[in-house]
Design brief:
Layout: E1 2-9, H1 15-24, E2 31-33, H2 35-43, H3 54-57, E3 63-69, H4 74-86, E4 95-102, H5 103-108, E5 117-119, E6 123-127, E7 139-143, H6 155-167, E8 173-177, H7 183-191, E9 195-200, H8 203-215, E10 222-226, E11 237-243, H9 246-259, E12 260-272, H10 276-285, E13 288-296, E14 299-306
Parallel strand pairs: 6-7, 8-9, 8-11, 9-10, 11-12
Antiparallel strand pairs: 1-3, 1-4, 2-3, 5-6, 12-14, 13-14
The structure holds S-adenosylmethionine (SAM).
């Protein structure tokens, strides 16, 4: 099925009114792009990292977008929408723009961005729909990311994989906090970890990670659980991996200390560069010695060890 995207340009005070018009017409999944709100969030440092093109940030007015299925009755729906927008108590009638969107573009557009990628000295990640023959000696992870994060194409993930390659000797127990697709837990298992608990808050990620664990036949080593940070973990482990964000790493560090065996490692990633020193201090305060720092673009990852 194809869809018609209707973008309505509206002043800030009209955003809720236009969303409500879409809702009343049975249009679900309304998208709001409000440059003032985005700028406010950026200024308040609510996001560690953001990527908005200048045309979104500099747009003079917010946009409210709704999606109509193409087919019989579309003209009437658009006429009704126009009528309802004209009746809103706003100084000017909001301007409307339309664009066709093909269903298959939505469903599969992201797939073209995922290609097989070789990571570190011994690892490779292959999306499940791509053909790839690894060079001798590379361990291949086969992943289908679905709606979860982590297909080996983000530096925060690849830096963790490189650390895992360095420290896993075989037989370790580990926890992967915020597992997404399960990529880091599966990496640890393929490198020889004996037991990995992979946790994510998001039930979609948990489902995707479980499928990827099966796909890579590491179900004997990796257990995927839905949970908040370390709330499902009680046993002491040799290694904790967390690729989340700086704020969460800071909160997590004292709890990681509680479940790590003495001399255990903590791989912390997803740290935006401007918060990297603050994270290092918090790691040290929590009793960790930072062994190595990696950086790639705006992102920093630390490998640390529990002292004492
Ligand atoms: C940046 S992704 C990392 C995914 C994967 N580990 C990787 O390295 O590519 C962060 C993941 O952490 C999960 N997450 C965020 N907050 C969490 C929390 N409080 N407890 C557990 N998981 C959390 C998110 O749902 C997301 O899947």
């Amino acid at each position: 099925m194809n869809w018609l995207e209707v973008a309505v340009h509206v002043p800030h005070e009209g955003i809720d009114m236009v969303s409500n018009v879409f809702d009343e017409m049975g249009v679900g999944g309304v998208v709001i792009e409000d440059p003032a709100l985005i700028s406010k969030y950026i200024a308040a440092e609510i996001w560690d990292h953001w990527e908005f093109p200048p045309e979104v940030l500099n747009r003079p007015m917010p946009l409210v977008k709704g999606y109509f299925p193409e087919g019989a009755g579309l003209e009437d729906k658009l006429a009704l929408l126009q009528e309802r927008l004209a009746a809103l108590p706003l100084a000017d009638v909001p301007r409307m723009e339309t664009k066709r969107v093909a269903e298959e573009d939505w469903a599969t557009a992201w797939m073209k961005y995922y290609k097989p990628v070789e990571i570190g000295r011994r690892l490779a990640v292959k999306p499940s729909w791509e053909d790839y023959t690894p060079p001798e000696g590379r361990l291949v992870l086969e992943l289908d990311p679905g709606m979860a994060f982590g297909c080996g194409n983000h530096p925060t993930t690849t830096m963790c994989m490189e650390f895992l390659e360095e420290i896993i000797k075989g037989g370790e127990t580990a926890v992967d906090v915020g597992t997404g697709t399960g990529i880091l837990a599966i990496t640890a298992a393929k490198l020889g970890a004996a037991k990995v608990i992979a946790v994510d808050l998001d039930e979609v990620a948990v489902q995707v990670a479980r499928e990827n664990v099966q796909r890579n036949q590491v179900q004997g080593q990796v257990e995927v659980l839905q949970g908040n940070l370390l709330d499902k973990v009680t046993q002491p482990v040799d290694l904790v991996i967390a690729n989340i964000i700086a704020k969460v790493i800071i909160i997590l560090a004292p709890d990681v200390r509680k479940i790590l065996k003495p001399g255990g490692h903590f791989i912390a990633s997803g740290i935006i560069r401007f918060r990297a020193e603050e994270v290092r201090e918090k790691l040290q305060e929590a009793g960790f010695k930072v062994l190595e720092r990696k950086e790639d673009g705006e992102w920093v990852s630390y490998l640390s060890v529990l002292e004492g």
